[in-house]
Amino acid sequence: MNKELELWKGVLSDGTKKSKLEKYIKGWEEKIGSFLEIDLNRGAYDSNESGALAGIPFGVKDNIAVKGFKLTCGSKMLQTLVSPYSATVVSRLQQAGAQVIGKTNLDEFGMGSSTDNSALQQTNNPWDTERVAGGSSGGSAACVAAGLVPFALGTDTGGSVRQPASFCGIYGLKPTYGAASRYGLTAYASSLETPGILARTVATTKDVFDIIKGEDERDQSSLSYEAEGGQVKTIGYLKIEEGALNADVEASYKSSIKRLEDLEYTLVEVELPTMDYVVPAYYTIAMAEASANLARFNGIRYGYAPFMAENPNELMKKSRHEGFGDEVKLRILLGTYVLRSGFQDQFYVRSQKIRTAIRNDFEKLFTKVDSLVMPIFPTAAFHHGSSDLDSFQQKVADKYTCVANLAGLPALTIPSSVENGLPVGVQLMAPYFGEDRLFEIAVKAEEKYPAPQPEDFDLEWLS
Amino acid sequence: MDTKELYHTASLARLELDEKEAEKLSREVSQMLEYFNHMLELDVSNLEPTTHALMKNNRLRRDVVAEQTVDPDEMLENAPDLEDRFVLIPNVL
Amino acid sequence: MSNKYETFIGLEIHIHLEANTKMFCGCKAQYGDEPNTNICPVCMGYPGVLPMVNEKAMELGYKVARALNCKLSKNTFFERKNYFYPDMPKNYQISQFEEPVGVDGWMDFDTPEGTKKIRIHDVHLEEDAGKMIHAGDMSLCDYNRAGYPLLEIVTEPDIKTPEDTELFLRNFQRMVRYMGVSDGNMDEGSMKCDANISINLVGKGLGTKVELKNMNSPRFVRKGLSYEEERQADMLDQGKALTQETRLWNENRDQTEVMRTKEEAEDYRYFPEPDLPIFRPDQTFFDLVESGLVELPLTRKHRMMEEYKLSADQAEYIHDDLYLADYFEEAVKLGGDSVQLFAWLSSDVKKLLNRENLSLQDSPLTASWLTELLELISSEAISGKIAKKVLDFVFSDKKSPKTIVEEKGMSQVSDPAVLTAAVDKVMAANPDVVEAIKGGDNKQRGFLMGQLMKETGGKAAPVPLQKILAEKLG
Fold first, then answer.
1. What is the pLDDT of residues A415-446, one digit of tens each?
2. C1 pLDDT band (50/70/90 cuts)?
3. How many CB atoms sit inside 10 A of residue C357's CB?
4. How far is A343 from chain C (nearest CA, A)?
5. Span A12-41, pLDDT tens digits
6. Position A256 in a domain
7. Long-range contacts for C446-450 (Cβ within 8 Å, ≥24 apart)?
8. Helix (H) or strand (E) segment spanning residue B77
């Protein structure tokens, strides 16, 4: 186990440390509101007290099931639902000893890039509370960046782990599709999303990944993990059109490339021919799948039910009308539309073909380079509300992250620099099951440029 | 997308829309669909659709009754309306 | 219906597969349990759960597709069929569409006009919904059935009459029972059948299709289709246009009623199920499917006619039930005469079973005991009349026919000395009757035989007895 986790071990079983943690969390939470539910005791019963990670707290995005905790998905629809079961990735961590201390805020059902689409609470960026923590795993990123937990779980459908990690100055791993079980992840876009890890060090990211990865009989799309090793010599960096990135982000991206060269990697500029079509393809697939995945929420077996309804149809319509937020409704509508007979070929089928084109692009690319470095988001953390980026612009901005989801490839956000008081990250990508390559590069970079810490970050009480 | 199509699509998805919402959504939906239409620029004629992400073939579950790890009663209690062991829904004819 | 129209009938048959667990989770697939007890987060559609394909269901699906002479898929996959229904937890049904387990098959069935062939469009796997019970202004949902493994068989519109449809369905039921893939009971809901029917002027091809639902026996399917055939012909006769719609059979009113029109039809928005990998059967799997093939009912019926000299009706009767057919063949192997066996099984044995409310399986009469009974008759150890009594005792005492005959002293007397003595005694006691017979009154012979039977307690073997009597009477 790594030094950081060693430091956190037993915190929850040590009365003094636990109360110090409680106080520390309280202080931060008043400012950032990263957790929707928090309980330092409840999770103890489900964690293996003799596990290597015993007494180590972690946070879980509130669209991932943890038995005995709520599973709101940031939605009024599920505001009162308590999960009767746990996700496989959660169970594996509990088996290793780690303890869930709470559920973190998110954009409703993972749909958004700011966590402002949560129907339940606002989450602020620990670096600047006027700004968003990113999304949709904004709560998980914020609580890790503030040092409330050593790591948290998130989900990444189109960048939902990597973008908030970048906004908050931490590491964020989206594993290879199928490398970690999706069982227990409230489905938004099944063929795109994976569970992900947010942490402050590469070592913790890797240790947690080692625990959660691998085939799960409850997820027939999961795969047994066979690492694609190989030493990294050449790293491709994506050619970026002028003006595509904010100045700060562009500067940060350029310095990252320079730093990788300093680490004695060979950097070559690369292009992805289909890059211009990834966002429409991504959203077509995501929304189509979402329209089916969210159909189960109808106010009958669980969840929000309207005050009055006369028949099943009215019950379903009212519960969905009152239970879902605007962004969710928009995506369900669009997803329903692109699957309708007569429109499927134009939208859904075409998007799946573009997906094939993107995969082909990457396949070719990885014959020339061992890894890739790319920007994450055109901006650093933006202000709450839509004054900086409206909801449509936010979607277009998913360009750099959603390609990994379309291709199913692993990608890792690493903190790059702090520009004008805000952290900016870049992402590394590798072939399928090439997570080791990502860690290898990230560790080297971390030695010189560890994750930055926001003001008031203080873990003195731990040691 | 015109209003008729919007309402038909909403009805397929069991979404109720009031007028104000319909107006707002209609704008947003049209904006996205226009954006989606960029996909038409790419020649996809020789590409097969990728319907599944990475998948190992032939994952099947043995036909053996599994131990109940979640108490059915616990799930029933989550239902907004119950009668005896039945989930209750209104059905005024 | 007048001869100017031609009828086209196609079927969508759903069968519950004989598996221990549901299609996509490990819950028990079992009828009759307390409501909402066989449920788990997967079949209740909780957030975050994923389906897991039942291996047995996959195997059975392929077996049926194979038995229906389908082209078997080398890469079958599931799709989501999207529509909202209160008893369908996910509000989509995991089904198959583009690449079902089998396509383009056919099935033969016998009709009074001979064997007919129906083309099978496809065979696909899917999951069942729960059950809704309507009570006043409320509905009660039970999700025990939600997720049951279902197989849907879709035929081409090749059936020409409602009568043939009923026959086809009975053939189909028999087939799935023979294969052990489903019990095929329509009244219990383990088999369902929706039909589509169109009529048109002869030679004009398919007409406007009407779908019929809610018929829970082959007989009701026939009745519903007959009603619909008449209704559509009347409409056409009156020059009215038919509408494409779905109608429900109302068994209380003996009529069909509109359920929904084409305009209200759902758009199912099928797309590949991202949670489940494509299934690519290997040779081992195909071998397993082949090895599980059984002789199908129709083949067996035709073989039985040939091999055992049964008439079509006799073979129809015997092969209808798999157990009866096996029983019959076992008895033949043990030496039973096929025609005798049929006679006994279709009358006396059947009557007794009905009286005792037993199935052949549950009755004490094994194939070897029935053969034994027939042997006792053919060897003249007992008479046919006595045999019926012996059969009664087999059921009540649960002992073999031989044991019963021995224990109860029921065997026939054919010893000439004993019979001669009896004849002498009876003739001596009825001299006037003997005189009358000798004088040519043959009607009185019956009386003497009756007296002889009385004398021997009914056990005298009739053939030798008559011979001795004839000799004595000269």
1. 999 999 999 999 999 999 999 999 999 999 99
2. low
3. 7
4. 10
5. 999 999 999 999 999 999 999 999 999 999
6. no
7. none
8. none
**Total domain count for chain A?**
1
Say whether pLDDT at A334 is over 90.
Answer: yes
Whichever domain contains A159, its CATH number is 3.90.1300.10
A158-186 pLDDT, tens digit per residue, is 999 999 999 999 999 999 999 999 999 99
Q: Where are the alpha helices (DSSP H) in A241-295?
A: 247-262, 278-293
- Per-residue pLDDT at C340 exceeds 90: yes
Q: Work out the mean pLDDT of chain A and round it to a whole number.
A: 97
Instruction: Map out the domains of chain C with their CATH numbers.
Output: 5-289 (no CATH), 295-407 (no CATH), 416-473 (1.10.10.410)
Give the active site residues of A.
Answer: 61, 136, 160
Q: Domain range spanning residue B9?
A: 1-42
Residues in chain B: 93
Nearest partner of A263 among A106, A441, A103, judged by Cα: A441
Q: Which two tokens stand for residue C56?
A: 């047995």
A93, part of any domain: yes
**What does each C-alpha distance from B61 to A223, B18, B66, C143, C230 come to in angstroms?**
15, 45, 11, 21, 48
* CA–CA separation, C286 and C292 (whole Å): 10
**Residue of B4, B8, B15 to mutate, interface with A, max A Cβ within 10 Å:** B15
Q: How far apart are CA C211 and CA A378, in angstroms?
A: 55
Do C34 and B85 count as a contact with CB atoms less than 8 A apart?
Answer: yes
Please state the rounded mean pLDDT for residues C406-431.
Answer: 85
SS3 A125: strand
By residue count, chain C amounts to: 474
C273-297 pLDDT per residue, tens: 999 999 999 999 999 999 988 999 9
- To test the contact with chain A by mutation, choose from C91, C137, C139, C141 the residue with the greatest count of A C-beta atoms within 10 A, namely C91
Q: Are A106 and A115 in contact (CB under 8 A)?
A: yes
Cβ-based contacts of A403 with chain B (< 8 Å): none
The whole domain housing A68 covers: 3-233+369-462
Question: Which two structure tokens, joined as six digits, stand for A99?
Answer: 């303890």
**A/B interface, count of CB pairs below 8 Å:** 173
- Render C351-365 in DSSP notation, one character per residue: HHHHHHT--TTTSS-
Judging by DSSP bridges, how do beta strands C255-261 and C102-111 pair with one another? unpaired
C-alpha A332, offset from chain centre: 21
Please report which confidence band the pLDDT of residue C450 belongs to, taking 50, 70 and 90 as the band edges: confident
- Is A106 near chain C, with CB under 8 Å? no
User: Three-class SS string for C398-463?
Assistant: CCCHHHHHHHCCCCCECCHHHHHHHHHHHHHHCHHHHHHHHCCCCCHHHHHHHHHHHHCCCCECHH
In angstroms, what separates the C-alpha of A150 from chain B's closest C-alpha?
30
SS3 A127: coil
CB spacing of C49 vs A220 below 8 angstroms: no
Contact C141, C89 (CB under 8 A): no
- CATH code at B11? 1.10.20
* 3 state DSSP class of A43: helix
Nearest C-alpha neighbor of A238 from the set A251, A253, A258, A248: A253
> How many domains would you assign to chain B?
1
Query: Does residue C474 register a pLDDT over 90?
Result: no
Mean pLDDT of C152-181: 97
* Model confidence at B93: pLDDT above 70: no
pLDDT at C464: 82
What is the predicted ipTM? 0.97
For C94-145, what is each residue's pLDDT tens digit? 999 999 999 999 999 999 999 999 999 999 999 999 999 998 899 999 999 9
Q: How far apart are CA A289 and CA A282, in angstroms?
A: 11
Residue B80 lies in a domain: no
Q: Is residue A152 part of a domain?
A: yes
Residue A334 domain-assigned? Answer: no
